[in-house]
Design brief:
The complex is a heterodimer of chains A (about 120) and B (about 675).
Chain A: E1 2-9, E2 12-21, H1 26-38, E3 43-54, H2 56-64, H3 66-72, E4 75-79, H4 83-92, H5 94-97, E5 99-101, H6 104-114
Parallel strand pairs in A: 2-3, 3-4, 4-5
Antiparallel strand pairs in A: 1-2
Chain B: H1 2-34, H2 43-65, H3 72-100, H4 109-138, H5 144-165, H6 172-190, H7 201-235, H8 246-269, H9 273-295, H10 299-314, E1 318-324, E2 330-335, H11 339-351, H12 369-373, E3 382-390, E4 393-402, H13 410-456, E5 467-474, E6 482-490, E7 493-501, H14 505-523, H15 529-541, E8 550-558, E9 563-569, E10 575-578, E11 583-586, E12 609-612, E13 618-622, H16 624-627, H17 638-648, H18 654-669, E14 678-685
Antiparallel strand pairs in B: 1-2, 1-4, 3-4, 5-14, 6-7, 7-8, 8-9, 9-12, 10-11, 10-13, 13-14
Helix pairs in contact in B: 1-2, 1-4, 2-4, 2-5, 3-4, 3-7, 4-7, 4-8, 5-6, 5-8, 6-8, 7-8, 9-10, 9-13, 10-13, 13-14, 14-15
Classes of the chains: A alpha/beta (about 120), B alpha+beta (about 675).
Chain lengths: ~120, ~675
């Protein structure tokens, strides 16, 4: 089960993921990011500090937005991943295609830098 | 066949008995008048009468009583027909007498006696026919006590019959009390009128008519036979008046009593017969609604049945049924009212804030006529509305209208409430069935996917003098597919692949078959693993959906150069045991999964790696189902544990290593049901 929250501050959309992302809850993640894109946010940070596990479906969600973000000049930074989760991203090679940081502060700085 | 024979025999028997009766009675009478001693015994006429009665009894028993096909009105018609026949015959005799006029014959006692006997026989046969029919009516709804009473009654009649023919005299008090008991019994039996309730209005009128005619016949015969009997008695003392036979009187009284009772009961039930018919129709309608789930194809037919049934049971002038369908579509079924009128009334009441129409338990018969009257152009003055409830939610409204004010009573409310409840249940069942059906289809789909996955895996693996391979794969339901395969490229090169498709169900199975096709076609081209991956990626861009990717590792083992060339596309890192250093470790390399980079740029994200192998080396390929398997505490199996297990079994064959690994895996997770696909392919070099 997953619980996804959105917080907007300083023009950045904070998406906070709590719990596990499996095949069915990945749809919720997809919808949340879609909503963010729809509301014309160009700076998105994803808080994964409370993310316990992510399945291939969840990874697929992140993967599917890479091209769209590039076209629409949206920047997304993911931060706070647990070691297991980061490992999964690393093996797949998704880590290189996405921006990943350790802390929220780093993420905000990075996303602002990218948007310039 | 047997019945027919008995009927004929009985009829024949009665005819014979009657002839003997007539003969003997005439003889006795003649002898008496002439003052002679009769040649026949005195008891003969009486015994013959008994036999006559008994034969006729059996005749009617098999003709009427045992005939299954007769319903109530048929029985009455039979009695009427018999009565008609005997009356006609009797009237014919009257006619003959009349035609004979003042000649000597009509005044001859013997002649009159014969006529009398004929009439008496006709009367008795009519009485017996009626008696048998009444018996069927009385015993329509049998109960143990009723049967017992009837048997006692019939036996008593038989006893009385026999008593009449023998000269056995019992005391007056005794016979009086017996007669009283018999009469009482007969009265109780005559109280069984349940068959009347089952007649409809028309049948009741027909029955009344038939019974009236029966009274006429009985009256006529009684009069005729009595007259003739009086005439003969005046002339001869030996003549026994039929009225002195207790049997005749009892039978006559019984038939008359039951006819009278039936007549009165039917007559007084006429005003209420419509209610019975109504009740019967309600039950039939109720059954229709509750069975509509099996017999009907759609929710709509249930609604139509509900509308029809409700309208007919309360005699409504118009009705409508509003339903919020499963797909939020709004439907309106109307009866004798236009859609516009219906919506007008509904909106009008809503505007007037008339509450409590749809609440369960509210007094629905409240007078809404004033509200309805205020709506221009509406001719209705009474409204009865019910909610249709499915799974605790109101999905619609049934509204019944009448032009009369206060046209609905509590009874009607009760009936329609039952209907709408049952309709709600039927619809709920209907929707549950649909859901179950969908679930079945989904499960079928998964079964197909699982079978496809299984069929795509190879049944035999390539082997070589240089290495031995063993592989194992198990899929969980609802999870994406693992794939592995081997192919011999030429005499010194063998290609291996292990892959994991993201997604689940049928989509994953299809992607797996695409991967298999790509593997088999590209591997033959003796490509460098990086090139293999680049081309595979290019092919898959057009097949994979948004958010889907495939992780894979592709190997080419060259037994001439003793090297392994491979490319890892986002798949779990290869575990390699080196016999020389007696240590195992994960190979370091880079590569993104297939389908992530949807253009030619992918070639910058994948590389070929090379290593040489020595005899005793072991390569373990696996999917994340192995390393991510959780134990009871939720901890993952992990890469370290896998490496350690490999080290424990380096001397064994690939199959043995595989079995040991799987065994350890089950042991770790505490169950053989791993919640993911898991695959291992173990290559041992020799």
């Amino acid at each position: 089960m997953v619980h996804i929250k959105r917080l907007q501050e300083d023009g950045i959309d904070n998406i906070v993921i709590i719990g596990e992302i499996d095949a069915s809850s990945s749809i919720e993640l997809d919808l949340t990011i879609a909503k963010s894109v729809g509301e014309k946010f160009t700076k998105i940070v994803v808080d994964c500090t409370a993310l316990e596990y992510i399945s291939s479906a969840g990874l697929g969600v992140f993967m599917s937005y890479i091209e769209e973000f590039r076209d629409k000049k949206i920047n997304m930074v993911i931060f706070g991943m647990k070691e297991k989760v980061a490992n999964t991203f690393g093996i797949l090679g998704l880590a290189d295609l996405l921006h990943i940081c350790n802390t929220k502060m780093e993420a905000k700085i990075l996303v602002n830098e990218l948007s310039v | 066949m047997r019945t027919k024979a008995i009927i004929r025999l009985a009829f024949l028997g009665s005819i014979v008995a009657w002839f003997v009766l007539v003969f003997s009675d005439v003889t006795v009478l003649f002898s008496d008048i002439k003052g002679l001693q009769p040649d026949v015994p005195l008891w003969l006429p009486r015994v013959m009468l008994d036999l006559f009665v008994i034969s006729l009894y059996y005749y009617y028993k098999y003709k009427i009583e045992k005939d299954e096909g007769l319903n109530f009105t048929d029985l009455l018609w039979k009695v009427f027909a018999t009565g008609l026949v005997v009356t006609v015959v009797s009237l014919a005799l009257r006619l003959i007498l009349f035609l004979l006029g003042d000649t000597k014959l009509p005044s001859n006692v013997i002649f009159v006696d014969i006529i009398y006997q004929v009439n008496l026989a006709l009367l008795i046969s009519f009485l017996l026919a009626a008696y048998t029919s009444w018996k069927r009516l009385i015993l329509y709804q049998k109960s143990k006590w009723l049967i017992r009473m009837w048997v006692v009654f019939e036996l008593s009649l038989l006893v009385v019959l026999v008593y009449d023919s023998v000269n056995f005299i019992v005391g007056e008090a005794f016979s009086a009390s017996l007669s009283f008991a018999l009469a009482l019994l007969a009265l109780v039996l005559c109280g069984n009128m349940k068959w009347v309730a089952y007649l409809n209005f028309k049948q009741k009128w027909t029955s009344l008519l038939l019974l009236l005619l029966t009274f006429f016949y009985l009256g006529y015969f009684f009069y005729t036979v009595s007259r003739q009997s009086d005439f003969i008695s005046a002339q001869s003392g030996a003549f026994l008046d039929f009225r002195e036979h207790i049997f005749n009187i009892s039978l006559f009284a019984f038939v008359v009593t039951y006819s009278v009772f039936s007549f009165l009961v039917i007559l007084f039930n006429l005003p209420t017969s419509s209610v019975f018919e109504q009740k019967l129709e309600e039950v039939v309608n109720f059954q229709r609604i509750s069975q509509s789930i099996q017999t009907e194809q759609s929710e709509e037919s249930v609604y139509n049945i509900l509308l029809e049934s409700s309208v007919s049971s309360v005699f409504a002038d118009a009705a409508w049924l509003e339903i919020d369908g499963t797909n939020k579509d709004h439907r309106l079924f109307t009866y004798q009212i236009t859609e516009k009128e219906a919506t007008d009334i509904r909106d009008h009441l809503k505007n007037k804030n008339v509450k409590g129409i749809l609440d369960q338990g509210s007094d629905r018969t409240r007078n809404l006529s004033s509200h309805l009257a205020s709506l221009k152009g509406s001719r209705y003055r009474s409204l009865l509305a019910f909610p249709i409830i499915v799974k605790g939610q109101t999905i619609g409204t049934l509204a019944l209208l009448k032009e009369l004010p206060e046209g609905f009573n509590k009874e009607m409310t009760r009936i329609v409430s039952t209907f709408s409840n049952q309709a709600g249940i039927s619809i709920e069942n209907f929707r549950l069935m649909e859901e179950a059906f969908q679930n079945e289809r989904y499960k079928e789909e998964l079964k197909i996917a699982k079978n496809v996955q299984k069929s795509l895996l190879p049944d035999r693996l390539e082997s070589d003098s240089d290495f031995e391979i063993s592989a194992f794969s198990e899929s969980a339901d609802e999870v994406g597919g693992d794939y592995y395969d081997t192919i011999r490229i030429n005499d010194h090169q063998v290609a291996l692949i292990i892959a994991d498709v993201s997604g689940k169900g049928t989509t994953a199975a299809f992607h797996m078959s695409q991967m298999k096709g790509i593997f088999h076609s590209l591997a033959q081209q003796e490509l460098d693993p990086k090139e293999f991956m680049v081309r595979a990626n290019q092919a898959l861009i057009f097949c994979l959906e948004r958010g889907s990717f495939i992780s894979a590792t592709y190997f080419v083992i060259n037994t001439k150069t003793k090297t392994i060339h491979y490319a890892r596309a986002g798949h779990c890192p290869v575990l390699y045991y080196s016999a020389e250093t007696n240590s195992s470790g994960y190979l370091k390399d880079k590569g993104k999964a297939l389908g992530m980079i949807k253009n030619k740029d992918y070639c910058n994200h994948i590389e070929t790696n090379v290593l040489s192998y020595l005899p005793g080396d072991i390569m373990v390929l696996y999917t994340d189902g192995i390393t991510e398997a959780k134990d009871q505490k939720g901890e993952e199996f992990g890469n370290e544990r896998l490496a350690k297990i490999l080290c424990e079994t380096t001397g064994k064959s690939p199959k043995e290593i595989q079995d040991y690994l799987i065994h350890k895996l089950y042991e770790y997770s505490g169950t053989e049901e791993i919640n993911d696909d898991y695959t291992t392919m173990i290559v041992k070099f020799r």
